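Sample intake sheet
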Amino acid sequence: MFPALAILLLWLVHLMGEAYGLPLYRLGVLPREASGIVGIFTSPLIHGDYEHLFNNSLPILVLGWCLLYFYPRVAWRVLVGIWLFAGTWVWISARGDRHIGASGVIYGLAAFLFFSGLFRKRRALMAIALLVVFMYGGLIWGLLPIVPRMSWESHLWGGVAGVVLAWFYRNVEPAYLNDADIVLLDDDDTDPLDHSSTTQQGAAIRIVYHADPGDEASDDELALKRKLYEGRQPLDPDRTDIAWSDNRPIL
């Protein structure tokens, strides 16, 4: 929902500028000028023409959705970090022209999604990284000073911000539990208390699930459940009117 609202905001800003003839380009980053500092916060909202805006709309929708869906715990921090990091370094190091557009944020999101999958080494996240490469692999050319009127500095610093944040938040859990790790055990290594299935070759298969630490019960909760269990009344079969069956429906 938020990526769609962000695109709507970009289009409303551009349409208002066109309708009232507003010089919105003045809200871009002007490097090393005091008047250009405001552009650090406003430049991603400003676009030069409809083609520029249209080219940025779809990547914002796709990459923004991936960020919110797969990394909800850090999505807002990553977005703000890319926004401010890229804008600040453009103001410090870029050419002395007005720099506008959300492409720096787009490069940051693409870099974060790609390198997060690599740093975390998880199949599902690496699949997202490959999807980003497949869809936006051509973005690599935007890091080079090839087109004179293209802000390759914004692209570069946005990408750097994405890589740095991917490494910084590499230990933050994504939106899903880890994949199950299937471990083959020899007979000598089999735990007698481990309820594992045994193959015909005699090797036990133990499936290990990495649970989310946030779902673990506290000691107080476990003690309360144990107390309730010990204090329960045993079932008297002579006073039971309902016969339970393994074929009963699940509600």
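Comment: The beta strands are 181-185, 197-198, 204-208. The chain has two domains: 2-168, 181-239.
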